[in-house]
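== Sequence, structure tokens ==
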Amino acid sequence: MAFWPAVPKFNWERALRPAPAPATGQPHVTVTAGIQVAAAGTAPTPHDRLAAQLIQAGPSLTVTVPAHTVHGRVTITGSATQGGVINLQVGAGATVHIAETWRGQASGQTRLLVSLTLAADAQVDYQTYDLYGDTAVVIERRVTCGANSQLTWRSASFGHHAGILYHAVDLVGDGAQAQANMAVLAGGHARLTATTAVTNAATNTQGLINQHGVITDHAQLILNGIGHILLGARGSDAQQENRVLMLSPHALGEANPLLLIDENDVTAGHAASVAAVDEHQLWYFLSRGVARPVALRLVLRGFLLALLPDSMSKALRDEIQQLIEVQLNG
């Protein structure tokens, strides 16, 4: 492919300069009956130059959910040294829950490419958790949605990792719908660029982006939301909200909402803010006898966890809350 993903004020070739971490194998995958896993699957066709680079990162894995599967489940668990390529195919009319969790750190740059394809009328609850330590990451996840398919994507990126996190959704079938939530907590000296991009390429499609970021210590976070309605995608809707809270005078944050509209018969909107914690919210707790440090943590936990699913296991929720506490404590 001739182009890199369109991310404001970012140099892809510079981001890919560090040496990748050596692959130590494939992630652990568990599935319900009927879902097929091929350990030596075929890598997806790259959409852009970034994907073409990441395909070389390591072994590929293909997971196939047959058409009309009911309440299927796919769980993927990996470490920072188990990057590579994951190709997920969901058949027509299937309903499936897919959860990815990545942990740990690597001496080199962790590289990961995930491609998820939804056939017509498929419904997918997609959850991704990037809980890396002090490491460098380049991650691209791309979802392609067929006609009348529905995607609910909730992602969390908590840690001291630096680099690029790029989530893309292509609504290529008429009536496709996607809601993409991203919660990011950047600490230490991390330099992280997190982007969610939704492209409305067919008629009557709906794309919603909701991103919350919190920055502590000396970290820097650029939070991009990109909604693109292509010519011919009549009756489509693109909405987004990007919010960043900075907890340190040394932190740097940006919230960049971008709308690219090539069609007239559509609706679109965006909101963005970069600010400190709302003193009115803190006053609500303080007036009821809650100490300020505790009040601050309650506000921030609610700000981040509001975008994540209630269906998380207790162990995972406890782990995420512990990560929040560690970073808020510096």
About this structure: The chain has a mean pLDDT of 91. Helices lie at 12-15, 49-54, 279-286, 292-305, 314-328.
